[in-house]
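seq:
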Amino acid sequence: MKLGTKHGETQTTIVRADFSGGLNTTANIDGIAENQLSLALNVEVDHATGRLKTVAGTTDVLKFANIFAAVYDEINRVLLLVTQERKVYAVTNDGQISNSLGTLSGSLYPISTSWEDGLLLATGGKLQYFNGTTLETIADSPNATGVYVRAGRVLVTDDNNVRYSGVGDETNWTEDTNDDSSSKFVEAGYKDGGRLIGMVNLSTDVLLVKDNRRLYRLSGEFPNWSIVEVSRNVEVSGRLGFCAVTDSVFILGRNAVQNVQTTNGS
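struct:
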């Protein structure tokens, strides 16, 4: 960058090479640090050198019209693509697209988790299972807005409860009080006026997120399980607004991102 006077003949060259401070949009342009930017277009910081580099961009590897959702099955190494009409297709690593495997049972964006031979999908209707070849709808399952796997059981959520499948059996949702391995359910925040949005891993526990700013932690296994309230002031934008990163959970609200750790919330 060169600076000069309007009527003078001399010019001064100023070099700016270190932008390791990143983008600062909270301060006035005149108040940012020497190694910060007030605006950055199509560039990113190379953390190895602290210098700017052009954003790498993307490369098209597959064209598929009308995509509503994409879910990756790590067990079978297959990408599932969902159209706006909720029809499901499988894409293999060599780019081959299957015929339609069927239709999602619900209208929500799929939340998935690995299970046995493939992937479990929760979309607001009956739980579905992709086993690497076919997409099966589990007729006896409760309607599920979220799905999670813990201690050999499948956990699903509806608006009010967390329901456990029988041990090792995603099709067993019948409760038997005389059989500890049968299906079970637990409530989070009985009559607190909120609806369950979903579940997310928090270290060895499960964090239950509700739409009334309340969080609950589910610890232990049946019959030695417990639920404790973690917070009453965590706003979440929706069922896709939280994720687990190492031993923390990040929750995206309308105006802030909050971090819940294994020992405290902030």
